[in-house]
Design brief:
Number of helices: 16
Keywords: Disulfide bond, Hydrolase
CATH superfamily of the largest domain: Alpha/Beta hydrolase fold, catalytic domain
Pfam family, one: Abhydrolase_3
GO molecular function: carboxylic ester hydrolase activity
Family: Belongs to the 'GDXG' lipolytic enzyme family.
Radius of gyration: 21 Å
Number of domains: 2
CATH topology of the largest domain: Rossmann fold
Structural class: alpha/beta
Largest sheet: 8 strands, mixed
CATH architecture of the largest domain: 3-Layer(aba) Sandwich
Mean pLDDT: 93
Low-confidence stretches: none
Shape: globular
Strand content: 15-25%
Protein name: AAAD deacetylase
């Protein structure tokens, strides 16, 4: 039996390799062979997770999290930074505190990792590297939040965890305990973490209990709306590496519920009820995108879905889950903003539209668009693949923080 099982595994593995080896190399990528290798690896992992899910062996997201958990590193302090896994206001965080003596008060960042609200951890190698580097280069206290994840927890739990840590940390007494300057605190995050950072920054504006104002928000290829999943960036990058359209639909719907009916409605982009049609003005790409991103795309009026889905899972219409749905009046009070978008990314247009809307109401925005980068490029700086574009992105991000925080 052992031999038979090994043979079966060998044949399956060979079939996978043969199938993926013919994946075309994208010509418009920098370092196309590295991108192809990454793309093949991710497709294989995703397909295996899909098969395991279909066979009822393990949930799709849980299968993927086996891979992300494999990449976790323990909280290790070094000569520059003291690193501890602890809790702030009952939420798990990884805390980075510089050791070098500071002449004055320090800067601080509350950081939210990506992973579609269902994967990832502050202790993943790439996030530990990023937050440690931030603490080091900026001589800043960094709080990296381990908010609870789907499929066990759904919206608004992730947002509430992110918010309660930030609100707790912004108390004068807590800031002074860590030697932090109350005028130099920011929130930041990538992908789903960028979504949480944007939502937290908006929500703080309306919370009369919070005296400390954020100095800045840094949103790295953020997901900002689940209303229209047929933007030009979703069309052009539907099958691009790392984050395909179908995976993003799965992650968005999984943020709100495990019910597959929402996923199916989102996949055909008919999940918004006609009663909520007024919200489309905030995500209407035909008005909000620059000409070069609209090229070759025709805007089609939304197809409305049944009101039952929105009644059962109102989260996808909630501004705490979709910061792009905020009114101009609400956006006006936001702090200095840094937004990164990537050309090869379904989420590109979310970030571009947000940057445009913020600028229009007078919020100072720096928007760096990396035409040749793909979603999550910054996470692969510490991988053996060592992407040059990820390094450029990371350098720009750190330089902006250093200058503006």
């Amino acid at each position: 039996v052992g031999m038979g099982a090994k043979l079966l595994c060998f044949f399956l593995a060979s079939a996978f390799i043969a199938y993926y080896i013919y994946a075309p190399v994208a010509k418009d990528f920098e370092e196309p062979w590295k991108v192809m290798f990454l793309s093949i690896s991710f497709s294989a992992i995703r397909n295996l997770a899909e098969v395991a899910d279909q066979l009822g062996l393990v949930d799709f997201v849980e299968a993927l999290s086996l891979v992300t958990n494999f990449d976790r590193v323990t909280a290790v302090s070094d000569e520059n930074i003291t690193v501890t896994d602890t809790k702030l206001n009952d939420v798990a965080v990884r805390l980075y505190v510089p050791r070098q003596a500071s002449t004055g008060l320090r800067r601080a960042m509350v950081f939210f990792h990506g992973g579609g609200w269902s994967l990832g951890h502050a202790g993943m190698r790439s996030y530990d590297y990023l937050t440690r580097l931030t603490a080091n280069r900026l001589n800043a206290v960094v709080v990296s939040v381990n908010y609870r994840l789907a499929p066990k927890y759904h919206f608004p739990v992730q947002f509430e965890d992110a918010y309660s840590v930030t609100k707790f940390f912004l108390q004068r007494s807590v800031l002074s305990q860590y030697g932090v300057d109350p005028d130099r605190v920011c929130v930041a995050g990538d992908s789903a973490g960028g979504n949480l950072a944007a939502a937290v920054a908006q929500h703080l504006l309306e919370d009369s209990e919070v005296e400390t104002k954020l100095k800045a928000q840094a949103l790295i290829y953020p997901a900002l709306q689940a209303l229209d999943l047929d933007l030009p960036s979703y069309r052009e990058n539907a099958h691009k590496p790392i984050l395909t359209r179908s995976l993003m639909v799965r992650l968005w719907s999984g943020y709100f519920t495990a019910d597959p009916s929402l996923r199916e409605a989102m996949a055909s982009n008919r999940h918004v009820p006609v009663e909520s049609s007024h919200l489309f003005q905030f995500v209407n790409w035909s008005n909000l995108l620059p000409e070069e991103l609209k090229k070759g795309h025709a805007y089609t009026a939304p197809l409305y879905g049944s009101p039952e889905l929105a009644q059962k899972y109102p989260g996808f219409l909630d501004v705490r889950a979709a910061p792009l749905l905020a009114s101009d009046a609400r956006l006006r009070g936001l702090p200095l903003t840094y937004i990164v978008t990537c050309g090869h990314d379904v989420l590109r247009d979310d970030g571009v539209m947000y940057a445009g809307r913020l600028r229009a109401v007078g919020v100072p925005v720096t928007h760096d668009h990396f035409k040749d980068a793909f979603h999550a490029a910054m996470s692969f700086v510490v991988s053996p693949l060592d992407f040059a574009v990820g390094k450029r992105l990371l350098d720009k991000y750190i330089a902006w923080l250093n200058e503006n925080l």
